Amino acid sequence: MLSIGINLANSTTIGLSNYAVQVGDRIDITSLTADAAKRATAYAWLRQTTVISGATQPFYIVQSADAGQEITGRVTLEDGTVLLTPAATVAGVVAPPAGNPVHILIVAGQSGASGRAVDDFVDAWPAGVLEWSANDGWEPVGSRLFQGPWEAGRSIAVGDAGTANFGWARSFAAAYAAANPGVTLLMVGVADGGKGFVNNDWNKGNPSYDQAVARCNAAIAAAPAGATVEGILWHQGENDAQSPAGRTAFKGAFDQFIADFRADITGTSATTPFVTGGHFPGTSYYQDAIQTVHQSLPNRIPYTGYADPSSPTEALTFDGVHLNAASNRNFGPQYFKALTTAKANTTLGGGGAITLGTMVGASMTASASSGSVAGVAIGAAAADRLVLIGIGYRSTFQVTPKSVQIGGIDAVRVDRF
């Protein structure tokens, strides 16, 4: 983070030299005295000489569209005086470092893939991660992954105050980079909020599908020689969940989409890992029929994975639809874990015969806020085993299971009822 100090008692132009920043940096106007702070009535940020729409806070997150431009902060006082920060020169379009292995990951789906949460700036993108930017080039990723020109005019395109621009792609990138040192990670965002299969958006030949394929292929064509597409990360289905017709047709449409998308993206095939994420219980968009399709994907289509939002704790939303910042940070590593199983072509369950075991009970003492139990013995280990866990409650408040681990392995949620 970069901070610029401004003394509002001085002249109309702050006496500091110009400075260099890059996409993703945060610029803060600080050092306001109590009296001066009261006198400041408005803030604005300029790209060259043009006011940036929506940038009205005393801080600004440098966006992909700022690459190669100068950014200036402007403060208006009660008496009409206008103060300007020194100009910040933003680094331009860059090329990935030569000699490093280059991996490309694609993020697609609806707004659950792009993210809507307020960014709390607890974490940051790993150094060196590049995105296919608004300038149609590989640039350092901004505070959020740019998803495409169709974002223009949407709240998720506003980045000056860090609002409505945070998703799980950032924590996924951190997990991926940590596991792949020396690899240059390139990410392509093509999520399109509010779009589904039932309303003819994501089927092959539909607008969301075609624009996503075109954007991915343009990015891949501009990547360094030898770059490989290492996976497709998907979160979608909320729109299809809203009607009986959408729920009924979802499985067939989703499976066909995976086949078509793998065929139409340059450098991908039927063995390119594809990961889908589970939906969030407790929202109006959660439907068992949609969740089952996502969760069972690894047992239907080879080289696919399932990212579970119930681990390590149940996902929470900030608006009844989209994950909050903390749950986004948890969800990203789940996508990375699922990508690993997809590459290994591992199914969620085996096909062996099931031998009935014995029922085991455990008492959990819970308060209105939390409760836990550990060390419950469920019998000897077996190569092929189905474990069903039911959690009930009898109290004046509802007890919602947050997470379950068996032998240190996350259990996958089936349903709440």
Any overview of this molecule?
With 417 residues, the chain is α/β, with parallel strands linked by helices. It has 7 helices and 18 strands. The chain has helices at 34-39, 111-114, 169-179, 207-221, 244-264, 288-295, 325-343, and strands at 2-5, 19-21, 26-30, 40-47, 50-51, 59-61, 70-77, 82-84, 88-90, 102-109, 130-132, 138-140, 184-189, 228-235, 274-277, 304-307, 405-406, 409-410. It has a 7-stranded mixed β-sheet, with helices on both faces. Strand 11 (130-132) and strand 12 (138-140) form a beta hairpin. Helix 3 (169-179) crosses helix 7. The model is unreliable at 6-17 and 156-163 (pLDDT under 50).
What is the compact description of this entry?
This protein is α/β, with parallel strands linked by helices and 417 residues long.
How do the strands of the widest beta sheet line up side by side?
A: 12-11-13-10-14-15-16
Which term fits the overall shape?
globular
Number of strands: 18
- Indicate the percent of residues in helices: 10-25%
Mean pLDDT rating? 80
The termini sit apart by 46 Å
H/I helix tally: 7
Order of helices and strands: EEEHEEEEEEEHEEHEHEHEHEHEE
Q: List segments where confidence is low: pLDDT < 50 over at least 5 consecutive residues.
A: 6-17, 156-163
Cα-atom Rg, whole angstroms?
24 Å
Largest sheet descriptor = 7 strands, mixed
Helical/strand content category: alpha/beta
Q: State which percent range the strand residues make up.
A: 15-25%
